[in-house]
Amino acid sequence: MPAYDYDLFVIGAGSGGVRAARLAGALGKRVAVAEDNRLGGTCVNRGCIPKKLYSYAAHYAEDFEDAAGFGWTVGERSFDWSKLVAAKEKELTRLGGIYAKVLTDNKVTVVLGRARMTDPHTVEVAGKSYTAETILICTGGKPSHAQFPGHELTINSDQAFDLPALPKRVVIAGAGYIALEFASIFNGLGVETTVVYRGAELLRHFDADIGKLVHQEMTKKGVTFRLETVFDKIEKKPDGLHITTNHGDTFVADQVMMAIGRKANTHGIGLMEAGVECNRDGAIVVGDHSQTSVPHIYAIGDVTDRLNLTPVAIYEAHCLIETLYKNNPMRPDHRDVPTAVFSNPQAASVGMSEEEAREEFGAVEIYRSNFKPLKHTLTGRDERTMIKLVVEKKTGKVRGAHMAGHDAAEIIQGFAVAVKAGLTKAQFDATIGIHPTAAEEFVQLRSPVAS
User: Fold this and answer.
1) What topology does CATH give the domain 6-142+263-325?
2) Neighbouring residues of 436: CB distance < 8 A, sequence distance ≥ 6
3) Model confidence at 451: pLDDT above 90
């Protein structure tokens, strides 16, 4: 008889957990995965997918306006929030079914309920215990909270997708991925939108020029920014939520959303009982092969707070299964990972920012272009796109590629291959562009704007 019920028990059926479970199951391993919510985790249910769908919806307001410049007459139009929510829900249900089928097809046992480790080899779910030779923790992250008078009157990003009605006035705290994406969504759907942020500029983990252009363009589109500002208190009154800031000024909103970051979802899963070490922020500490302080317990994805992106969690899962079951030790490489913010305009990046490159290499060359997209020569819309390359002067290697503008995410994905491969500026210059596109600008930058 086997010493354990399962070869691998996965806690959390998000993108990373499902990938690990599926791959292990396909190899003939006895695998179970526990989930206390919908299959698919944050990305499918409360993050990437519904946000992108809502972003598409928000863009139609501009698309209808822009059509006139190309000879179209668009009739009366209106927006129904409840229809969007229902359509989103239908799609998430479909995706959940696909995840369930993928697991079932690979003979993975799905255990519904919140899992908690009771010792290093035992997981308890809904009062039943399961033993496993190896345990994988991928419980993801959850929204961070701030404590101030009236904080209980706010919502987080998880709740924003299913509001009973679209508010007329919304205030969002934060200036990262989630805050700016939702600000663009609400603004595009006709909501009076204000962003409050403690810092001096947006997207602090991106190249500074990207944050500046996104700030400029979102302001043009009607989003109000209150920088170097935090909430002092929120009070509910008959006409709405009265927000008082650290500067002593007060303004009113119908809904206040906190998007000040996320933290590892590690509370109540038995890490102490299993002996798993966490850092001061509560994220699980792992080594090069995603191994925790307990040799047979591993962790991947946002719960480790290394690089919190869905494709990274999937990649870490792949590396782990190669290491555990295919005699092919693989370390996840977190360098030069492309990422994007689906705000309006989009922001996308791969590799080093100008600031990071200067710190590491000293001598760099900066190539940058700021232009009006061809489309808007007819729409008349005052909108700019910016692209930027960061080049190490000594080797000529392109260390970073950055863009803010329409389709930035799609364009940067292609250039991410070049940056990851270590291509040089000379090789970019030797590449013929596709005309007329915004992407061609990346291979037509001839003169540095700074060094």
Assistant:
1) FAD/NAD(P)-binding domain (3.50.50)
2) 374
3) no
Per-residue model confidence (pLDDT) at position 150: 97
Q: What is the mean pLDDT of the chain?
A: 97
Is residue 205 flagged as an active site residue?
Answer: no
Look at residue 418 and give its three-state secondary structure.
helix
Q: What percentage of the chain reaches a pLDDT higher than 90?
A: 98
Q: Are residues 361 and 367 in contact, defined by beta-carbon separation less than 8 angstroms? A: no
Listing DSSP states for 42-77 in one string gives: HHHHHSHHHHHHHHHHHHHHHHHHHHGGGT------
The model's pLDDT over 139-165, given as tens digits with 9 standing for 90+, comes to: 999 999 999 999 999 999 999 999 999
Residue length, the chain? 451
Q: Which two tokens stand for residue 362?
A: 């000293």
Over residues 416-440, the mean pLDDT reads 98
Distances (CA, A) of 415 to 313, 336, 411, 438: 21, 11, 7, 13
Are 124 and 47 a contacting pair, CB within 8 Å? no
Q: Read off the pLDDT of residues 222-267 as tens digits, 9 standing for 90 and up.
A: 999 999 999 999 999 999 999 999 999 999 999 999 999 999 999 9
Question: Do 151-260 and 6-142+263-325 have the same topology in CATH?
Answer: yes
Give the active site residue among 151, 318, 406, 435.
Answer: 435
Short-list 407, 403, 399, 409, CA closest to 386: 403
Q: Would you state the CATH architecture of domain 345-443?
A: 2-Layer Sandwich (3.30)
Q: Domain spans of the chain? A: 6-142+263-325, 151-260, 345-443
